[in-house]
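Q: Structure tokens for this one, please.
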Amino acid sequence: MTSSISLTIRDFRPEDAGAVAAAHRAEREHLVLSAEALAWQNAQPSPEEHFRTFVAELDGRVVGAVRCGVVLGTTTEGVGYANGSVLPAFRRRGAATALLAAAERHLTGHGVTELHTWVDDEPASLAFATASGYRLGRAMQFAGRDLTLPLPPAPVLPAGVELRPAADWAAAPHPVFLVEADAVLDEPGSEVPMDAVEYEDWLRCDWTRPDRDLALSVVAVVDGEPAAFSMAQTDGVDRYWSAFTACRREFRGRGLTKSAKLESLRLAVAAGYRRAYTSNDTTNGPMLAINAWLGYERCAGERKGIKRLERPAGREA
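A: Here is the predicted structure, written as tokens:
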């Protein structure tokens, strides 16, 4: 007797957050994402990003999801993203294909002609991406660290430099935003220039995330001015994620990001976190060297997939 499987693709509901987070993290210990952060992300207004999460149900069980939207912060038009995952036990049943198709339909309706996705750097995932029409691009490396092991000693800070928690700027973070807006202009490996990052978008999408821990995030200040930072996100239990480490270009070469990232890890240890994870473009030699010095070891990788999308028939260019 042949059993039929009922596959449904629908919009995210708040009660899906736990199942979607579980699918995202399955066999990916290096990904730190809480159900709370997912629910928050889907509750945010996004009139320009057109953010949407599609959920896959197999016989009534949530087995995967894809989060998609228009890339903000760039003058390049028509670029979108779609990042998804399906529980390992439910793969090869059409869920991933249907989720990507739903994301593509949604985004082409909002002018997206080039879609970017991240793909686990392992044979089955890479084969699925290429079979789905994605061209493989740059590579990212994930690395992990056991926080119960000793950290390296802190280097001596240059004169005029101090390390402060990002929480000091909680009410007025614009000076911290300026560090990121400058640093992303030459982020290694980026296919899309992030040359139009808006403060309000940064506040909404990054600074106010519920899993962003401003007490563990560290800002390096030079003569009273934020010059570099290491931002932290956590699962609220025992895992820490280095969200972004950045330095304004005029302050590079002084060891500021190295000191900020080490101090953030030291604070994470004191707060009881036991595992730390980070990621870098494989061409980012300086940050890879810093992470090696901090004791991180490679644990996984992923590749960027890029696909050209056709506008719907009859839609104006």
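A few notes: Helices lie at 17-25, 35-43, 95-108, 123-131, 174-183, 199-207, 256-270, 285-294. The radius of gyration is 20 Å.
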